[in-house]
């Protein structure tokens, strides 16, 4: 990783704790304060201190987070938003215009799909679906008007794996940007910009925040010019992360590496247990050798992450019952926090994709495996599966 100023570079774990965060010059506070402020005193008209004039344009706590995000993804510019979808909306309205086409995955996050199909489509942006795990499908799907190829890897909720380097080449050949939603992996496990992607998207609500106590989003770009355009639109559209939310995400990121290691270890144990369970038809986890994307995941990820999905024998009703019986696994949407969650994507997170090409199997259960004792987690799943 090299820094935008070409300075001495630290390893990921060090950057996670220090990038963008000098001790406060006035007090020596080792953690950036929450600058809960909207406006800034000017030293004469236009005499800004440190470039701050109004907190939609910039706020010091948000700046700390944005510099940290850029460092962790190895990018030139990081931007923090009020939610993952606010980040996606800003990106798409910055780079697309009516008549442009976007190629989307057949297993995108439900809210992302809703943004394409229910919002942007009304503004004349065309979209079509490709199987991002199959490069031929992507090559066949790009058009002369394609401006963006969008990929999630691992994907939500089916844990599909796409080869980022291969897709980056296809997008480049087509004159399109490759956008990678890196929410499931986090930059600790996967660095899309280094593999050729143009923009990384995050729901920082998930692993980056890591404690289920904040909603946020981020964009990181490799290209400084695109970063500048995005920053302009971030201010023009206004969906920025507030100071306290920025502070919570910064705080969460400090432990990202140790959390992801434990999430990955626990998820591996859970996936192995599920593959042996008679009530489970199929386990979707890229760490399993039989997973279709295992080799690509092993090549581009440091470990396989904390998300595991599985299909339950007995269909939809049986899957819903497993979710209802779980106790330590909390029944709820979202993911990426220290506590384990369980949900039924078909009726919960992905209900908005029903009837579309992105509909998920009705017998699917999704786990966000937390960092509790793995023995307690295995015992709870055992009783939930009956
Ligand atoms: C949650 C999520 C989003 C949307 O982020 P919000 O913070 O909920 O707006 C986008 N992509 C993925 C993969 C997600 O899990």
UniProtKB/TrEMBL annotation:
Keywords: Pyridoxal phosphate, Transferase
Membrane-spanning parts: none
Superkingdom: Bacteria
UniProt xrefs under Pfam families: Cys_Met_Meta_PP (PF01053)
Enzyme class: transferase
Known cofactor(s): pyridoxal 5'-phosphate
Gene Ontology terms, MF aspect: cystathionine gamma-lyase activity; cystathionine gamma-synthase activity; pyridoxal phosphate binding
UniProt xrefs under InterPro entries: Cys/Met-Metab_PyrdxlP-dep_enz, Cys_met_metab_PP, PyrdxlP-dep_Trfase, PyrdxlP-dep_Trfase_major, PyrdxlP-dep_Trfase_small
EC number: 2.5.1.48
Reactions catalysed: O-succinyl-L-homoserine + L-cysteine = L,L-cystathionine + succinate + H(+)
GO biological process, one term: transsulfuration
Residues modified to N6-(pyridoxal phosphate)lysine: 206
Keyword set includes Transferase: yes
An example Gene Ontology CC term for this record: cytoplasm
Protein family according to the UniProt entry: Belongs to the trans-sulfuration enzymes family.
PANTHER family hit by this protein: CYSTATHIONINE GAMMA-LYASE, TRANS-SULFURATION ENZYME FAMILY MEMBER
Protein's recorded name: Cystathionine gamma-synthase
Organism per entry: Peterkaempfera bronchialis
């Amino acid at each position: 990783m090299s820094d935008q100023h070409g300075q001495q570079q630290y390893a990921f774990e060090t950057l996670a704790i220090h990038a963008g965060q000098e001790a406060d010059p006035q007090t020596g506070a080792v953690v950036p304060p929450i600058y809960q402020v909207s406006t800034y005193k000017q030293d004469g008209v236009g005499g800004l201190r440190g470039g701050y004039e109004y907190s939609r344009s910039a706020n010091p706590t948000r700046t700390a987070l944005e510099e940290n995000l850029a460092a962790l993804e190895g990018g030139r510019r990081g931007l923090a938003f009020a939610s993952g979808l606010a980040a996606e909306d800003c990106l798409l309205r910055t780079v697309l215009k009516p008549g442009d086409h976007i190629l989307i995955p057949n297993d995108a996050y439900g809210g992302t799909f809703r943004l394409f199909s229910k919002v942007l489509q009304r503004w004349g942006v065309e979209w079509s679906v490709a199987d991002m795990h199959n490069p031929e499908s992507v090559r066949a799907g790009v058009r002369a008007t394609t401006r963006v190829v969008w990929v999630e890897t691992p994907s939500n909720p089916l844990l599909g794996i796409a080869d980022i380097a291969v897709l980056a080449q296809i997008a480049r050949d087509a004159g399109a940007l490759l956008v990678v939603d890196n929410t499931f992996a986090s930059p600790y496990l996967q660095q899309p910009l280094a593999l050729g992607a143009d923009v990384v998207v995050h729901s920082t609500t998930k692993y980056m925040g890591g404690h289920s106590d904040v909603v946020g989003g981020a964009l990181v770009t490799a290209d400084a010019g695109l970063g500048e355009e995005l920053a302009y639109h971030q201010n023009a559209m206004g969906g920025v992360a507030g100071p306290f939310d920025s502070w919570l995400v910064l705080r969460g990121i400090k432990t990202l590496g140790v959390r992801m290691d434990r999430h990955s270890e626990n998820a591996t144990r859970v996936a192995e247990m599920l593959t042996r369970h008679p009530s489970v038809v199929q386990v979707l986890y890229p760490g399993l050798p039989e997973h279709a994307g295992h080799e690509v995941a092993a090549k581009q990820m440091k470990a396989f992450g904390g998300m595991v999905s599985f299909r339950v024998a007995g269909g939809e009703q049986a899957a819903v019952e497993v979710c209802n019986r779980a106790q330590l696994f909390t029944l709820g949407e979202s993911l990426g926090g220290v506590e384990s969650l369980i949900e039924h994507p078909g009726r919960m997170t992905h209900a908005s994709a029903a009837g579309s090409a992105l509909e998920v199997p009705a017998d699917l259960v999704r786990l966000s495996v937390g960092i509790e004792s793995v023995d307690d987690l295995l015992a709870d799943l055992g009783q939930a599966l009956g």
